[in-house]
Amino acid sequence: MSLSEKQSKDRKNGGENERLLQANNRNLTTSFGYPDNTIKTSKYNALNFLPMNLFEQFQRLANAYFLILVFLQTIPQISPLASYTTVIPLTVVLSITAVKDAIDDMKRHQNDNQVNNRPVLLLANGRMEEDKWMNVQVGDIIKLKNNQPVTADILLLSSSEPYGLAYIETAELDGETNLKVKQAISVTSDLEDNLELLSAFDGEVKCDPPNNKLDKFTGILTYKGQQYLLGHDKLLLRGCVIRHTEWCYGLVVYTGPDTKLMQNSGKSTFKRTHIDRLVNVLVLWIFLLLVIICFIIAVGHSIWQSKIGYYFQSFLPWEDYISSSVVSAALIYWSYFIILNTMVPISLYISVEIIRLGNSFYINWDRKMFYAPMNTPAQARTTTLNEELGQVKYVFSDKTGTLTQNIMMFHKCSIHGEVYGNSHGKVGAKVPDSEKEKVDFSYNKLASPNFAFYDSTLVEAVRRGDKWVRLFFLSLSLCHTVIPEEKVEGELVYQAQSPDEGALVTAARNFGFVFRSRTSETITVVEMGVTRVYQVLAILDFSNVRKRMSVIVRTPEDQLMLFCKGADTIICELLHSSCTDLNNMTMEHLDDFATEGLRTLMVAYRELDAAFFQSWSHKHSAAYWSLEDRENKLSVVYEEIEKDLMLLGATAIEDKLQDAVLETIVTLNKAKIKIWVLTGDKQETAVNIAYSCNIFEDEMDEVFMVQGKNYETICQELRTARAKMKPESLLESDPTSVPLLAKPKTPSVVPDEVPSGTYGLVINGDSLACALEEDLELELLQAACMCKGVICCRMTPLQKAQVVELVKRYKKGVTLAIGDGANDVSMIKAAHIGVGISGREGMQAMLNSDFSFSQFHYLQRLLLVHGRWSYNRICKFLSYFFYKNFTFTLVHVWYAFFNGFSAQTVYDSWFITCFNLIYTSLPVLGLSLFDQDVNDTWSLCFPELYEAGQHNLFFNKKKFMNCLIHGIYSSFVLFFVSVGTIHNSERSDGKDISDFQTFSLIVQTSLMCVVTMQIAMKTAYWTLMSHLFIWGSLGFYFCMLFFLYSDGLCLMFPRIFHFLGVARTSLNQTQLWLSIFLSTILCIIPAVGYMFLKPLFYPVSVDKVFDIIRHCMKFPLPPPVPVRLKHSNFRRSAYAFSHQHGFGALITSGKTTKSKQKKKNSCSLKI
């Protein structure tokens, strides 16, 4: 078997073990069966739309139920009604839903076509030709220019930057706007933009098969008989954008669905709401009830035919196909099955779709969710999940780009015991940001125009030459791995590995210490207008273990200096004993910074002795070139010189949150919505944001850190946390422990537990990978669900989805995932509801979401206003609709006992046709589209109202049984009051009125009055439209009554219209109106009693909130008194810094300098 045949067979079997490709050889790679670069996010195509959509729709039991009815109605022996009475409504329902789904999917097709038809420069026949994205194939070489998105996952070959460097923005992948650096291997970077050399390049690549790991890639490039290792730093992923790089060339490795972006997109699934699933169950109940009722009627018919009907065949002859009473009963069984089908009317689903569509438009039209700076409205991308928004209990949120803007601002600092950055008025009160006056940096021609600071005393200290202030900013301008770019004189652009470093260097720049340029050996700083060159002797780069970085420089005065910055918990241990008092004072300042949610770093320095440094330098060189245990040896050498430091101060950086994030999370917490942050960022950064957002609070009893690496350690950490939160949860007798002990094959619901205090949980990706194993997942779930907030950091996209699936599997609550990057798509699709943040961070999350908007704080309006209204409306609709149709249908059952169970209907056939379709459709739609129990302002002021949806209080199986019992009672009243009215009755002129048509008119008119009054009582928000729909529909019924029963119409079409003059001759009788009035009163008495007595004797939390709202409407509350932030009894570090290694290795190797120095094997490993 050839290599290409083997590779193609592996792909067909779904088991590609490795990817093989050769540059500029389409014939070879095509034979492997790799897909082209076309992407597809849509669900349907022209061929599979009809079968797939019908399959999804017939998952609703009611649709399947009506399909069965259609087949039954084609049998004339059992069908008292024509088949079109069911065929037409079912076709309408399926068509409306199909059209809606088709429109939604067409939008996805349009988005796909827009992306697939983007232009790209492709190397073909020795020249660059413009082609479409979708035509790119594995093995092609493409050219990308500055600010262009990356077409596919490509291996970087060469670029316009020195040594094959390329800068990319990964916002669409991870929501981070800071730039990343990629580097081509030296053997391909020499190809540069020489089309002849690039066309002749025939390197072969063997690498990982397609996978969803955004930060993992390993492979080998074979070229000219040599092999070179490939890593993640050589791969440009689809979704990235080229920045500050004039051009670059790349070899396509993964295309279309194989790209890591699309591998993280997950599979489109058909989402159904809890209400949908509940209605399916209720339809099954109704079906069983219908079977039982029909069976009882059939038995009754059999008995009647045996004892009465058999002997009166001369009056009631049997059909030829009826041989006995048993056969007659069997046919009557199916006849009643058809007559009573309106217990689940097909119009239910038409109405539900219209209601959901209308509520979706409210979201799209909401001006308060429109983000003017980006001209972006909120968008309901699906119309099937509206009421689910009113039941959310768990929110899973990304951090970067969702909670934060990923914009770091130098906010405050502490220098030698003095705090700078506080703005106070004359009486000492803090000045709001809008009233602060910006510091004027016009004296500094190289200052960044985007930098803002509000404390002029710091500028004054710099200008008067304060030693400690100048040394502090000198440290910030030297101790970093930022790479500067100055393509235009005076316009500096800093390429920083983390936005923190960029903010610190920019701050030093504005205060007069401008980092201007660097080489592998020097740093040039413009200090208050004077250019000074510092010799870089060593960079002790940052790592997650060290939590600090240092730089050793030789000053122009030939003085050796070490500058260090890092976490306060680390730097404090490295300070000279003389800094004790200053350290204590600085720590107090750090506590203040931490309380304000600022990210902090300590800054220190040390003057070095030349002889000591010379000795240390030899040790450093030996450790650096060591082949074994290099990292540990370097750490030991670093610790020898990073000690006896002199403290300079501390920085406080604001990781700018999205607008109103803090207020939103406070509001959601009041609504009993638990917020979990799932992020790929490092632990310190994630925890710092959790405190800033109020997910964690300083007043919490404890925040548990799960950091174990093995099963035993993690299990012990989780059990310890549970023991502190609720000791009895570890007992076997505790009900929540049953799922842990039983280990059932099918997931069981784990009940909620109430902890003894307020707690938080932090777990990292490595520990989470172990905790998600079967034996530990319930331990993790129970511990996490007792916490007020949960932070999961260093997570892969797959782990995010796994956490969401875990909660979905074992908890009853509705889950919502919100994110902005491609790494969030998996959890967005896994959750019951997926929300995408649309904006500058990319479009992948938005394209795969159910709802989208531009700012996180719109989430509270989406849930607490639109979600709660939608849930309330659909619940009122279902309660009313089931009651209305039980009342309407069960009258036939009572009538059966008076007509020999003969399948005769009570109502006129035209009333049966129009009842759901015309007479009662507008009132119920008006209720479901316009009703509000309270307006949006009160909904946001009292988030506690939201709890009703979380516990599904307004429509559940118990409420359904209430509707059934009320419907049975009302049908009983309607039938027997009407029977009593006409029994042995006479008209005012002495004529008998005991006829079927008059009886039918009384029942149906009483029914219309009863259902009208019921919906009027359910309506909480009266508008002109409400009055028009409710009372207008009742008036329209009477108009239609006189029209359909008019002499002219009945005489023209006697076979269709049978009730000749009944309305005219009956509605002028007093006893008929008294009967209607009595029936209406008797039917609404239970509803009125329940409405007033339940809040008095069985109140729920929502009832109490409504009482408060009514009181507030009469007596407005005074404005809240601002509360001063309190310090907790313990201090916590607010340290947060770059989550990756810096550019130290690149800088010291000289690869960022403009003067190229040839180095063999500089970025490849020969094997």
From TrEMBL:
Region annotation (Disordered) ranges: 1-22
Compartment(s) of residence: Endomembrane system; Membrane
| Residues that bind ATP | D398, K399, T400, E501, F542, K565, R599, T679, G680, D681, R794, K800, N823, D824
The entry marks the following residues as binding Mg(2+), namely D398, T400, D820, D824
> Which cofactor does this sequence's record say it needs?
Mg(2+)
Domain called P-type ATPase N-terminal: residue spans: 22-87
- GO CC terms: acrosomal vesicle; plasma membrane; trans-Golgi network
Q: Which GO terms describe its molecular function?
A: ATP binding; ATP hydrolysis activity; magnesium ion binding; phosphatidylcholine flippase activity; phosphatidylethanolamine flippase activity
Q: Does the keyword Amino-acid biosynthesis apply?
A: no
Q: Say which species the protein is native to.
A: Chinchilla lanigera (Long-tailed chinchilla)
Composition bias, kind Basic and acidic residues: at what positions? 1-19
Q: What is this protein called?
A: Phospholipid-transporting ATPase
Task: Describe the family membership recorded for this protein in Swiss-Prot or TrEMBL.
Answer: Belongs to the cation transport ATPase (P-type) (TC 3.A.3) family. Type IV subfamily.
Protein EC: 7.6.2.1
The P-type ATPase C-terminal domain covers which part of the protein?
A: 848-1099
Q: How does it sit in the membrane?
A: Multi-pass membrane protein
Keywords carried by this UniProt record: ATP-binding, Magnesium, Membrane, Metal-binding, Nucleotide-binding, Translocase, Transmembrane, Transmembrane helix, Transport
Report the transmembrane regions from the record. Answer: 58-75, 81-99, 278-304, 324-350, 877-898, 910-930, 963-984, 996-1016, 1028-1045, 1072-1093
Q: Which InterPro entries match?
A: ATPase_P-typ_cyto_dom_N, ATPase_P-typ_P_site, ATPase_P-typ_TM_dom_sf, ATPase_P-typ_transduc_dom_A_sf, HAD-like_sf, HAD_sf, P-type_ATPase_IV, P-type_ATPase_N
Which GO biological process entries does UniProt record here? Answer: Golgi organization; phospholipid translocation
What is the catalytic activity of this protein? Answer: ATP + H2O + phospholipidSide 1 = ADP + phosphate + phospholipidSide 2
Q: Does the keyword Transmembrane apply?
A: yes
Annotated catalytic residues: D398
